[in-house]
Amino acid sequence: QITLKESGPMLVKPTQTLTLTCTFSGFSLSTTGVGVGWIRQPPGKALEWLALIRWDDDKRYSPSLKSRLTITKGTSKNQVVLTMTSMDPVDTATYYCAHLIAASPNFDYWGQGSLVTVSS
Amino acid sequence: QSVLTQPPSVSGAPGQRVTISCTGGSSNIGAGYDVHWYQQLPGTAPQLLIYVNNNRPSGVPDRFSGSKSGTSASLAISGLQAEDEADYYCQSYDSSLSGVVFGGGTKLTVL
Questions:
Q1: What distance in Å separates the CA atoms of residue A21 and residue A96, rounded to the nearest whole number?
Q2: B54-74 residue pLDDT tens
Q3: Is CB count within 10 Å lower at the N or C end of chain B?
Q4: Ramachandran class of B28: left when φ > 0, alpha when ψ lies in -120 to 50, beta otherwise
């Protein structure tokens, strides 16, 4: 059974760096063909893909946010970390991590999401 | 502005059939990349509904079906039920962006 859970601050100040951790179980990030992705959703708005990391450590980023994002495998084998610099109130959103099927990229299991508010 | 275009809303009466379109371009759906659909019930995380154009994960009723042709894809829901009221998103891969793209989402209202 695959599960994922996001953790991190609920509130960050403008210009600060956001660090979110995805802790997962039920799969290994060293298994060929899998990965973890990050997707966010501002309140009342659509889903927006942010980044993904594959089993082979290949990393992809949304072109519009690439300069601000870093995705890495965590120090623990069952974690993936996303950092986003220069946070702004428009970055207020629910941030989801999800299990990636890399062959035809889609997300078959999602975390519950973590609401991050950017405000001074 | 989303790379994949969906109608903002659709509606139908219980028992009816509705379709939701997802229009892309030559660097995503038209390039042969697969389309996937997600259902997001109010206040919950999205769930995979259709993968690789027309496949249903275990547990998804066969009332839900997907298709793809050219630069577009469609999600069809037959025998509408009140519990189908949700937001639906299409998703694909874009070679120009080298990444995942989502549609803008469609809100389904069951009248």
A1: 10
A2: 999 999 999 999 999 999 999
A3: N
A4: alpha
CA proximity to A51, closest of A39, A68, A33, A34: A39
Contact between B98 and A60 under an 8 Å Cβ cutoff? The reply is yes
Mean pLDDT of all residues in chain A?
97
Q: Which residues of B touch A58 (CB under 8 A)?
A: none
- Considering only CB atoms, B99 lies closest to which of A60, A96, A111, namely A60
pLDDT at A60: 97
Q: What's chain B's average pLDDT?
A: 97
Give me the mean pLDDT over the B43-62 stretch. 97
Asked if B103 lies within 8 A of A46 by C-beta distance, the reply is yes
B111 inside 8 A of chain A by CB: no
- What count of residues does chain A have? 120
Task: Name, in order, each residue with C-beta under 8 angstroms of B80's C-beta and a sequence gap of 6 or more.
Answer: B12, B13, B14, B15, B16, B17, B18, B110
CA angle B44, A48, B95 (to 5 degrees): 135
Q: Which of B57, B101, B105 is nearest residue A49 as measured by Cβ atoms?
A: B101
Subunit contact B52:A106, Cβ cutoff 8 A: yes
Tokens matching residue A41: 């959703």
How near does any CA of chain A get to the CA of B80, in Å? 23
| pLDDT at B58 (0 to 100) | 96
